[in-house]
Amino acid sequence: AVGAGERRLMTGAAAAARAEAAAGLAGRALLLANPRSRSGGDPDTVAGLLRDAGLDPLCPDLSKPGGTAGLIRAHAAEVDRVVLAGGDGTMNAAAPALLETGLPFAIIPLG
User: Fold this and answer.
1) How far is CA 107 from CA 16, 65, 102, in A?
2) Which of 29, 90, 99, 102 has the fewest Cβ atoms within 10 angstroms?
């Protein structure tokens, strides 16, 4: 379940995405939500908030081999940004691929 603090953070992320959409900057977001994070990174909840904000989330299966960095590399040409929802482990796993691809990213702290 998502707590009140996490909901406020996600609502803030949704507000930022809505502002981008209004400015004509909306696009496709690679959503990597760690379902095992301490606060419960429910991918469906986060994806719904991104859709509400005008973004088109791409939600790959995190249980498949390749890991977070591999998914970022594999989908880099298909997305405009990456949204990471998880804890420090998720961020550390994503960092190398974010540096390589240069994709802008957002963090929803759920660790």
Assistant:
1) 12, 22, 15
2) 102
Cα(69)–Cα(51) distance, rounded to whole angstroms?
Answer: 23
Structure token digits, residue 82: 């990456």
Phi, then psi, of 60 in degrees rounded to 5: -70, 160
- DSSP letter for 56, please: E
* Predicted model pTM: 0.74
- Measure the CA angle with vertex 69, ends 102 and 82; round to 5°: 50
Strands 56-58 and 81-86: unpaired
- What does the pLDDT look like over 7-50, one tens digit per residue? 555 555 556 555 555 554 469 999 998 776 666 557 788 889 89
